[in-house]
Amino acid sequence: MLFKKRYPELDLLRASAIILVLFRHFYDRVFQNLPDSAFKHFFAFGWHGVDLFFVLSGFLIGGQIIEEYQSGAFSFKSFYIKRFFRIFPAYYSALVIVVVATSITSGSFVLENGVLFRDFIYHLFYVQNYLNPDHLQGGIYWSLAIEEQFYLLAPFFIVLFLRRSGAALLRSLVILVSFEFILRFFIFNPSISWWASIGTPFHTRLDMLVFGVLAAYVFIRHKVRLERLSIWGRTLMLSSSALFIGLVYAYGKPAESLFNSVAQFTLAGLGFGMLILYLAVFPLNMGLPLRKASEAVAKYSYTIYLYHVLVLSVLFKPAMELFKINTSSLTNFLLIFPLFFGAVFCISAGLYRLIEKPGMELRKRLIERRRAPITSAS
Predict the structure, then answer these.
(1) Residue 251 within any structural domain of the chain
(2) What percentage of residues in the chain have a pLDDT greater than 70?
(3) Is residue 378 part of a domain?
(4) Which of 28, 105, 161, 369 is the 20 to 30 Å CA partner of 237?
(5) pTM of the predicted protein model
(6) How does pLDDT run across 123-157, given as a tens digit for each residue?
(7) Number of domains in the chain
(8) Range of 150's domain?
(9) Cα 174–Cα 178–Cα 180 angle in degrees, nearest 5
(10) Which pLDDT value is given to residue 375?
(11) Is 377 within a domain?
(12) DSSP secondary structure code for residue 135 in this structure
């Protein structure tokens, strides 16, 4: 089965996505006084690392559901068990750690701090992308709420249309991404908060995940046909992806304009979706060091996302203020960022082994136990 194997190229994309996010937050929260340059523009583009995460999630999760359903192996219960143990132990542990750290640094216990307690409750129920709190981790967990909302709905949506036919699923996915484009056009209002109206709601960002599901469907259905593409076909596919991503890189930003509110997410979804599809069909000649490094960063990417702002705000930012490090210096950024990345990576690797790995091992045992009676009966 195509989605049972590991794709090093997708590990590379996942690793790239989290590094882009780290670049953005390191620049945005510490080195915001950098002078204008190509480097600054690249660091600012890092917020699209979240979009790449969305499309990757849609591709991998959607692909697993489609493939398992078509083979008769899909189970709603097994799917949600997998998602529960992959997400919740790490997420809720991070929430507790962040709340405790925030309580200590603010000198106000969570029950005494109305804003902190409110935000904690919002995050408990994954509604922070709508209620838009900006205190826990500076509000970065909004993207996790969108992914969780997608995981809750995606199996029902995909199975509903697959029961009719694969063509019905394909049509529904195309209609959905088209509807999202139109919806953002009608919602767009430069006089209200861009983040609250466009940037973080599930109903305006869903198409990023749907583009991933669409790429997964094409991959499953047409992999052999794609492998036969001529060099010109491959070049067209890759250059189209580069064009869409390039337009977003050149013009896209989280700001109140028609392009940023309506078109940039469609272009990003198309570009990232085509790139993922291309790399899944046409593997790169990755050397062993790059393959191992990508796999390691991809493995810990969820934990890195959960804790990187905490590491930044509790360790690095105070240290830089203490030593009066010039935060308008590009040289300082390039020298200190590897230290920040190394610290976050090591902390995340430790927390992964402490929290996430035991949860996933328990998940594996539960799923194997559910399959055992079927195996013995057959």
Answers:
(1) yes
(2) 96
(3) no
(4) 161
(5) 0.95
(6) 999 999 998 767 777 789 999 999 999 999 999 99
(7) 1
(8) 2-372
(9) 120
(10) 43
(11) no
(12) S
